[in-house]
Write a structure and sequence with these properties.
By secondary structure, this protein is of the alpha/beta class. The protein contains 14 helices and twelve strands. Helix 4 links the parallel strand 2 and strand 3. Helix 2 packs parallel to helix 9. The termini are far apart. Bound molecules: pyridoxal-5'-phosphate.
Length: about 400
């Protein structure tokens, strides 16, 4: 069967996988090895005389290949690369695309570590980042110069759920030689396909929905064959590779991605509606609510609205902490995309590295609470939040 024409659920189960030709093993084997015994191949010229398809796990491993082939097909990209974490995916793309003197234009609301990487680490290498409010693509256009080599967007943005118009930004980038890279962690390829909207590459924290069970770290880069080949070379040289067991966990998680995403999304909508009517809640940020300022854009570029939402509790830090200490089912933890509902306080947890003034400007207030809605029964999540708010 031509898997490229199959539906998402079929691709998620079968892409990249086939029974082991040696043993018939149905499940993908975990090739837990650092190195591969090289075979003499007299057909090959002397320099590559002793080779197999794999040489050393830092440069590639058959379990990683299964994950990479599955992700490339799910995303509709030519190729994919597995990395040790989402941050390894992002940093390896940056090291591939940028050199001293180049500039990044980035949406201003980002996962905290991505923001700090751009703001603190990249300038040491001579790469400056211009942060713009990307909810208005004209800001991207105005910031574009001949030094811009990458436009980076995270949409929906962590934690404010701002939406960036991927097609509009990609069209702006077409006027330059900047590559558009989208962090699609919140949506996954099941709900949002940035490359179909014109982006050049997509990055993921596979730690979240792709693996889906909160038990592993991982990252993915998807793009054209040539781009991924270049990023693979950077990765082999910089060392942020995944390991066979983590790759295997992500392969397993991906098989149920669509089922989980639909449940996360259905639950998040129920919780968003509940919170938006609650007397202790000032506002709810969820793209699925008509009150979200970019609800129409979200409907256009996303197939559904996903499992993450944020809300601002009336009061501030004290009220937020009091509420978070009272939850019983929801777990107070950073990360997201887990089967369990996780609750966190961006201002003092995931986004604490952002200076207070900038954080407040971005809307990450002291009363803002982020929820990663799990796949429990929505009513149980609501009952728990309700008793904590009371
Ligand atoms: C949107 C987003 N991108 C990237 C990352 C970084 O991923 P990792 O923790 O796997 O390095 C995170 C982590 O929370 C995230 O939320």
């Amino acid at each position: 069967m031509n898997l490229e024409k199959a539906g998402f659920f079929t691709k998620a189960v079968h892409a990249g996988e086939k029974p082991c030709p040696l043993t018939g093993s149905h499940a993908t084997p975990i090739y837990q090895t650092s190195t591969f015994v090289l075979k003499r191949n007299v057909e090959q010229p002397p320099t590559t005389e002793w080779r197999t398809a794999y040489i050393y796990t830092r440069a590639g491993n058959p379990t990683h290949t299964v994950l990479e082939e599955k992700m490339a097909i799910l995303e509709g990209g030519e190729a994919a690369l597995a990395t040790a974490s989402g941050m390894a995916a992002i940093s390896t793309v940056i090291f591939t695309l940028l050199k001293e003197g180049d500039q990044i234009i980035s949406s201003d609301t980002l996962y905290g570590s991505t923001y700090t990487l751009f703001k603190e680490i990249m300038p040491k290498l001579g790469v400056k980042t211009v942060f713009v409010d990307a909810t208005n693509p004209a800001n991207m256009k105005n910031a574009l110069t001949n030094k811009t080599k990458m436009i980076f967007i995270e949409t929906p943005a962590n934690p404010t759920m701002d939406i960036v118009d991927i097609r509009a930004v990609s069209e702006i980038a077409n006027e330059s030689d900047a590559k558009v890279v989208v962090d699609n962690t919140f949506m996954t390829p099941y709900y949002q396909r940035p490359m179909e909207l014109g982006a050049d590459a997509v990055v993921y924290s596979a730690t979240k929905y792709l693996s889906g069970h909160g038990d592993t770290l991982g990252g993915i880069v998807v793009g054209s064959r040539n781009f991924v080949m270049e990023v693979r070379r950077t990765l082999a040289l910089t060392g942020g590779v995944t390991n066979p067991f983590n790759a295997w966990l992500i392969v397993r998680g991906l098989k149920t991605l669509a089922l989980r995403m639909d449940k996360h999304s259905e639950n998040a909508m129920a919780v968003a509606k509940f919170l938006s009517e609650h007397s202790k809640v000032k506002k709810v940020l969820y793209p699925g609510l008509p009150s979200h300022p970019q609800h129409e854009l979200a409907k256009k570029q996303m197939r559904d609205f996903g499992g993450i939402l944020a809300f601002e509790i009336k009061g501030g830090m004290k009220e937020a902490y009091t509420m978070m200490e009272k939850v019983k089912l929801c777990r107070c933890a950073v990360s997201l995309g887990d089967t369990a509902t996780l609750i966190e306080h961006p201002a003092t947890m995931t986004h604490r590295m952002i200076p207070q003034e900038e954080r407040l400007q971005l809307g990450i207030t002291d009363g803002l609470i982020r929820l990663s809605i799990g796949i429990e029964d929505s009513n149980d999540i609501i009952v728990d939040l309700d008793q904590a708010l009371k």
